């Protein structure tokens, strides 16, 4: 079997099994009185499946320690495997790789009758997982969590082993899409991966791996929606689903306590909809609302719902869910948070950094959010895939609005099979992030080939599907197709568009920007009568390259191009349908190797190492000025460097 045939057959197998687990919850693992969490992060054994992509299955590597199958190296989890080592063969590998790790499970977990779940935050792109030689999990589509109860597969009080096969191959029916190409080399034929999207196809176990415990009957999922009354009463509508089976005659009781952001019990009342208390409405007097950064003096205010599920035998399960109280509304001209018009000022971004690739890293996340707040932004889009839950936690707590995007990028070759995976990715994303106050929109695609006739019915189906899951948030997308031929915008609530005037179109001619942006944005609104925002614009700049007069790739040119866009945005803001601006990109990032990319995409206002270019200081002045003008925020004292005391005059006698 060829590598291409093998990868295609693996995707069929994985996708057939993925849908089986779609009804269960995917709550983030949190320790409590009834739950323990054990991290499996650290160093794992790792090896490539070479030269035969099937060798691991033929020789059943999952039946023994990976170190006994041949040479292994130590690979950190979480991380992408591509850039950790200096071996080009690892960086450019196409196909399967294998991981394994040994771990102990406490005997006390068995004695206490715990269920034990195995949870992965993300494996890219497809994964099969064995525990002690038993296949327990299959998952396709990276950037999203998956889990399973593995209690029956564990050896309590003894050494256990987890084995993971990871496949990074992208095909016409994966999300995102790609294709395989066979080429001839000096040493024989070779299969390479190709794709049209402009970021590196990092692979591996990208996010944390956890074991966590629950009682036999446990809190499986929680749905919350929020509102507030004119007299300041916060309303939290909740619905709790439980897992596990009740014995004959056994009953459940659910109780909820509300804690404020200092973890102190809040004054509240609960009006239950059922005898068990599994659904109802919580009322909080003088509630504090969740506000975006710089729209309120106390942004990102989070309550905690302390949910306690008890059964007849007094075996409790306790789960604490962070909740922010806020409303979202939109009209044909505006987007509102808590009934106040919100203007988005932010970025497109990537999960990307040196060495780690797309691996989750708390130090990096902390730095990124500090820079986001330093620059005065209040939002970003998770281009072009869902970001780590830990990253989303920061957004909730800091009041950063998120346009939450699924992994569909450059969508083409529309088919029923692709549609199924596309909607599966959105179902898993919405299930994961539905309760987050920071998530303000669902982005269903980035730059799809929406001029193709099949795009109309395809995206109509996607939009209808999303509305069956969430009607309280608007649907958007980042459109790059021309206005006259696009078939996607008609199915959206809010229109986002990407355009690179004076970069990909007429590079060097910044004099075209203002009129073109103003004209196009107005036409999007006129055609569809919906709010519009710009989801991408920008120019590459090579840090340290200075040219006067400005010239493409110089820091000066990036600043000049930005200013011309700012002029257009300010005109559009007076038109009352334009709701935001998001520059591309927050930071430089890695791409595939092409002659148009010098070490990657350099459109960041920060370098890949998170150091500011001239454009970062320029954007900071813009975003803080907007916050001052729109929300009355005082400008930082260091927004401008001292030059001269304008109040002091020198009197010179002649």
From TrEMBL:
What keywords would UniProt list here? Glycoprotein, Glycosidase, Hydrolase, Lysosome, Signal
Domain Glycoside hydrolase family 2 catalytic per the UniProt entry, residue ranges: 331-627
Superkingdom in the source lineage: Eukaryota
- Check the record and name the Pfam families matching this protein: Glyco_hydro_2 (PF00703), Glyco_hydro_2_C (PF02836), Glyco_hydro_2_N (PF02837)
**GO molecular function: any one?**
beta-glucuronidase activity
> What residue stretches are annotated with the Glycoside hydrolase family 2 immunoglobulin-like beta-sandwich domain?
217-326
Record-annotated Glycosyl hydrolases family 2 sugar binding domain positions: 37-215
Enzyme Commission code(s) on record: 3.2.1.31
> Which residues belong to the signal peptide in this entry?
1-16
Output the Gene Ontology cellular-component terms: extracellular space; lysosome
Q: Does the keyword Plastid apply?
A: no
Localization: Lysosome
Name one process (GO BP) from the record: carbohydrate metabolic process
Family indicated by similarity: Belongs to the glycosyl hydrolase 2 family.
Function field: Plays an important role in the degradation of dermatan and keratan sulfates.
The record describes its quaternary structure and partners as:
Homotetramer.
This protein's name: Beta-glucuronidase
**Organism encoding this protein:** Macrosiphum euphorbiae
Q: What is the lineage of its organism?
A: Eukaryota, Metazoa, Ecdysozoa, Arthropoda, Hexapoda
């Amino acid at each position: 079997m060829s590598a291409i045939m093998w990868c295609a057959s693996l995707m069929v197998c994985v996708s057939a099994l993925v849908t089986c687990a779609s009804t269960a919850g995917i709550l983030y693992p949190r320790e409590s009185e009834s739950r323990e969490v054990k991290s499996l992060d650290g160093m794992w054994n790792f090896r490539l499946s070479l030269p035969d992509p099937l060798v691991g299955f033929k020789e059943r590597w999952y039946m023994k320690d990976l170190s006994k199958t041949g040479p292994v190296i130590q690979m950190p989890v979480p991380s992408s495997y591509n850039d950790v080592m200096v071996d080009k063969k690892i960086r450019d590998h196409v196909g399967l790789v294998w991981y394994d790790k040994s771990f102990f499970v406490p005997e006390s977990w068995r004695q206490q009758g715990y269920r034990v779940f195995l949870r992965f935050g993300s494996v890219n792109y497809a994964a099969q997982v064995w525990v002690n030689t038993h296949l327990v999990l299959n998952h396709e589509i990276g950037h999203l969590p998956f889990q399973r109860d593995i209690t029956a597969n564990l050896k309590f009080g003894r050494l256990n082993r987890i084995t993971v096969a990871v496949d990074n191959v992208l095909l016409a029916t994966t999300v995102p899409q790609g294709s395989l190409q066979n080429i001839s080399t000096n040493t024989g034929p070779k299969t390479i991966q190709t794709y049209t999207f402009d970021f590196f196809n990092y692979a591996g176990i990208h996010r944390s791996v956890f074991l966590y415990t629950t009682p036999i009957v446990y809190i499986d999922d929680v749905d919350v929606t929020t509102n507030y009354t004119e007299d300041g009463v916060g309303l939290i509508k909740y619905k709790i689903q439980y897992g596990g089976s009740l014995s004959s005659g056994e009953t459940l009781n659910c109780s909820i306590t509300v804690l404020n952001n200092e973890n102190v019990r809040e004054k509240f009342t609960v009006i239950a909809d059922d005898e068990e208390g599994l659904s109802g409405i919580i009322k909080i007097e003088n509630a504090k609302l969740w506000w975006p950064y710089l729209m309120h003096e106390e942004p990102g205010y989070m309550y905690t719902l302390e949910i306690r599920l008890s059964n007849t035998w007094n075996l409790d399960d306790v789960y604490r869910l962070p909740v922010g109280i806020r409303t979202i509304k939109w009209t044909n001209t505006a987007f509102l948070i808590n009934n106040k018009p919100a203007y988005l000022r932010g970025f497109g971004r990537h999960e990307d950094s040196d060495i780690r690739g797309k691996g989750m890293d708390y130090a990096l996340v902390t730095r990124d959010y500090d820079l986001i707040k330093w620059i005065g932004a209040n939002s970003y889009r998770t281009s072009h895939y869902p970001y780590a839950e830990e990253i989303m936690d920061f957004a909730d707590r800091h009041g950063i609005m998120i346009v939450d995007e699924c992994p569909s990028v450059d969508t083409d070759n529309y088919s029923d099979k692709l549609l199924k995976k596309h909607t599966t990715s959105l179902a898993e994303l919405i299930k994961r992030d539905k309760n987050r106050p920071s998530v303000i929109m669902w982005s269903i695609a980035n730059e799809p080939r929406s001029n193709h006739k099949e795009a109309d019915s395809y995206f109509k189906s996607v939009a209808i599907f999303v509305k069956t899951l969430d009607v309280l948030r608007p649907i958007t997308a980042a459109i790059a197709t021309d206005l006259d031929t696009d078939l996607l915008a008609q199915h959206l609530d809010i229109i986002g568009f990407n355009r690179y005037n004076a970069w990909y179109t007429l590079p060097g001619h910044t004099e075209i920007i203002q009129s073109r942006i103003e004209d196009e944005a107005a036409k999007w609104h006129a055609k569809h009568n919906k709010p519009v925002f710009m989801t991408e614009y920008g120019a590459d700049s090579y840090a340290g390259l200075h040219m006067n007069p400005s010239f493409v790739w110089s820091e000066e040119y990036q600043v000049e191009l930005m200013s011309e866009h700012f002029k257009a945005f300010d005109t559009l803001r007076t038109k009352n349908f334009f709701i935001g601006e998001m520059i591309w990109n927050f930071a430089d990032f890695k791409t595939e190797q092409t002659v148009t990319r010098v070490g990657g995409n350099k459109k960041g206002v920060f370098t890949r190492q998170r150091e500011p270019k001239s454009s970062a200081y320029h954007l900071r002045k813009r975003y803080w000025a907007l916050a001052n003008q729109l929300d009355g925020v005082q400008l930082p004292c260091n927004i401008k460097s001292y030059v001269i005391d304008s109040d002091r005059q020198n009197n010179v006698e002649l």
